[in-house]
Amino acid sequence: MKKDIHPKYFDNAKFECVCGNKWIGGSTLESNSLGICSKCHPFYSGTEKILDARGRVDKFKKRQEKTAAKTIAKATAKATPVKPVKRKKAAK
């Protein structure tokens, strides 16, 4: 194995996000400035917004509602008992 080809590793490297969050971790750089972290990323922070210019999300939600309504209608139709039809006996 060649010597002195790997960069120096810093166990106490400082990380700072643009949102102000700071933490210490390992890196080959002594300090890092990040554009986004788990504190401000929409997916992890729960502030995720769906941007939809053509209404695709709304169309999808409407289809889901229709399907759910049909499923409920079928389930209630099967659950309601059907009264047997009384037939008259044929005359001899």
How would you describe this structure to a colleague?
With 92 residues, this protein is α+β, with helices and mostly antiparallel strands. It has two domains: 1-48, Rhinovirus 14, subunit 4 (Irregular), CATH 4.10.80.400; 49-79. It is built from two helices and three strands. It has a three-stranded mixed beta sheet, with no helix packed on it. The radius of gyration is 32 Å and the shape is rod-shaped. The chain starts with 9 loop residues before the first strand and ends in a 13-residue tail after the last helix. The mean pLDDT is 84.
Fraction of residues in H or I helices: 25-40%
What is the percentage of strand-forming residues? 15-25%
Please name the CATH topology of the largest domain. Rhinovirus 14, subunit 4
Mean pLDDT comes to: 84
Shape: rod-shaped
Structural class: alpha+beta
The helix tally amounts to 2
Looking at the overall shape, the CATH architecture of the largest domain is: Irregular
Through-space gap between termini? 107 Å
- The unreliable regions are none
Region (Disordered): 72-92
GO cellular component, one term: ribonucleoprotein complex
Biased composition (Low complexity): 72-83
Pfam families: Ribosomal_L31
